């Protein structure tokens, strides 16, 4: 009998290259604060004051404090059943990689190995001059933004407003979108560009599109082949279970 879950499970079980593309929705189910929307962080902390490189350089103490606070909230959250299901499908060789817009490390914590971070990671610092990277301990963060061995102040390795996606993740994600034959969209709508391009690129190259969202999005009518409606923490474990049964 055909159902969206059944269609999706068959596509994943028989897929040659299956990619997940995840956004804020999957992390929201872990209690990660969301940035956009009426109750989002940007309503309280205007991004022009807290999420541009100009603001950071002009006012590093305040902006550093903001990111440390966000990072601590994120570090207190745990992966949910959707993150675990994605990691499990990868460990069973049914899933090739995860491209995520999230900066919270929850995929890695759940055990995912190949994670392409489209918007960076709040647990990492980067030097704006020499690109040197360092992890930051969010349970005991430094009071001041640390300096790079090369001498200048480091910044959170986060794609801020007005900045481009770093070339490495950008190219890797685009190449995977072209190559995959199944893409699983999880917890993201077609609002955030250029991340929202990836499913369209995949579709143009013939991929089967699975979408897990709590409500329909612009993807649903345009490109989605199997729509799994509901919380990802429920639909993805069901998908992973059915894929396991089929293989
Ligand atoms: Zn440096």
What do these coordinates show?
The chain is α/β, with parallel strands linked by helices and 247 residues long. It has 12 helices and 9 strands. The protein has helices spanning 4-14, 24-28, 41-44, 47-50, 53-58, 60-75, 81-91, 106-110, 167-179, 197-204, 218-222, 232-246, and strands at residues 18-22, 97-100, 115-117, 120-127, 133-135, 154-158, 182-186, 208-213, 226-229. The strands form 2 sheets. A 6-stranded parallel sheet has the order 3-2-1-7-8-9, sandwiched between helices. A 3-stranded antiparallel sheet has the order 5-4-6, covered by helices on one side. The longest helix is centred in the N-terminal third of the chain and has 16 residues, at 60-75. The chain is elongated. It starts with a helix and ends with a helix. It binds zinc ion. Zinc ion (ZN) binds next to loops. Zinc ion binds next to loops.
- The neighbouring-strand order within the major sheet is 3-2-1-7-8-9
Distance between the termini: 18 Å
Instruction: Write down how many β-strands occur, each being a DSSP E stretch of 2 or more residues.
Output: 9
| Average pLDDT for all residues | 94
Helix content: 40-55%
Q: Over the alpha carbons, how many angstroms does the gyration radius reach? A: 18 Å
What small molecules are bound in this structure? zinc ion
